[in-house]
Design goal:
The structure is a homodimer.
Chain A: H1 5-18, H2 25-52, H3 57-69, E1 72-73, H4 74-81, H5 85-97, E2 101-105, E3 113-117, H6 119-139, H7 145-174
Antiparallel strand pairs in A: 1-3, 2-3
Helix pairs in contact in A: 2-6, 3-4, 4-5
Chain A binds a DNA duplex (30 and 30 nucleotides) through helix 5.
Chain lengths: ~190, ~190
DNA sequence: ACGATATCGTTCGGGATCAAATTGTACGGA
DNA sequence: TCCGTACAATTTGATCCCGAACGATATCGT
């Protein structure tokens, strides 16, 4: 019902609201649609294949990373999965409790923890991934292979831009100012 | 550090893992990159412009929706913002407490609640949105206007596909099976 | 009329999530 | 050897979020 019409229509309304101030319409549309698409896809996958296996999106991503890359150090898994280390600690413990992953200490560096799939975890992914991929195909059904490549490439550039220049940009924006607090989370000691 | 290389490399590894089973590579790449881009963009915007105004991403989206569409029923706002009704209740109460939005009952339908911006909320958006849009331009800096349009259009189709056929698809997948529970959240009564 | 049914927003249960603080381990130099 | 620094993962505190249950209102059928 929100339809897609709303995006472009919203842009016009926003333009009107802002009066003289120029709006970067194309850029705004990309960001808005990235987020919409991400929510829609995530929700569809959670409600179709994932819930059937009692997996959250994050849990699946973590399993996927370990499945693909093999036994890995937790910090790499967190980075690759796009979640914080703290979150990974909780998620991996849940998965361990369900017998899907194994946590073992690094043989020479006692600070590291390695994650790997158990046989059960391996079997789960063998079963779930094809279903997951099937739904990936479903959600992108209205795009040709060529269009898929082109959209993926465009998104890749966005990711690269943020990864390579985001930090610098944030510093430049805040300049000398304080790093800005966060409403939630543990309070700084000082 | 994960770089973008990892995506395509992961696809190859996944293909190997799956042996004979065919993998829809292009489709997989689109979904993976949608999610990566969404996380990257959200994080960048939260850490740059949003935190300075003590806004979470969700709070900003809610404000934006009400700002653009004007006084609206909560269910429409939730839908448009891509969050659940329950979440919106909390978010809008927080925003009300901060004096940014107003909640008023519908004149004829007693079940409805209408959200609108206060003057203060209006001023906040006048101030914050340009900054937000500026960062939208930053994250998409590596795309031309034309490429922006094309990526946005591709994503739009993904959203439409899920919105128009997702429900049907989910039903077909589960067929007669139960709707599948969720690990967290309040337990069903039965 | 009036009860069954549908629809709204809110409440509630149970994680999920982040960032700071903390704890534990490694490794360099004095 | 012993200390300080560097770097792991984990714990902690506060909040966010979803979806089932709930209570209140509207509407439809008879």
């Amino acid at each position: 019902m929100p339809g897609q019409r709303s995006i472009t229509e919203a842009e016009k309304l926003a333009g009107a609201k802002l009066g003289g101030i120029p709006v970067r319409h194309e850029q705004m549309a990309v960001v808005a649609n990235i987020y919409r698409a991400a929510s829609a896809v995530r929700q569809h996958l959670e409600n179709s294949v994932l819930r059937g296996s009692e997996l959250t999106w994050t849990a699946f991503v973590v399993l996927w990373v370990v499945w693909i890359w093999g036994e890995s150090e937790t910090r790499h898994v967190a980075e690759e999965a796009g979640i914080s280390k703290g979150t990974l600690t909780g998620v991996s413990r849940t998965l361990e409790a369900r017998g899907l992953v194994r946590r073992s200490g690094h043989p020479t560096d006692g600070r590291l923890v390695l994650l790997s799939l158990t046989n059960e975890g391996e079997e789960l992914m063998q079963r779930v991934f094809p279903q997951f991929n099937e739904e990936e195909a479903f959600v992108t059904e209205r795009l040709s292979d060529e269009e898929c490549r082109s959209v993926a490439e465009g998104l890749r550039r966005v990711v690269l831009q943020v990864e390579e220049q985001g930090e610098e940009r944030r510093l430049a924006l805040l300049d000398g100012a304080e790093p800005a607090p966060r409403r939630s989370g543990r309070r700084p000691k000082a």
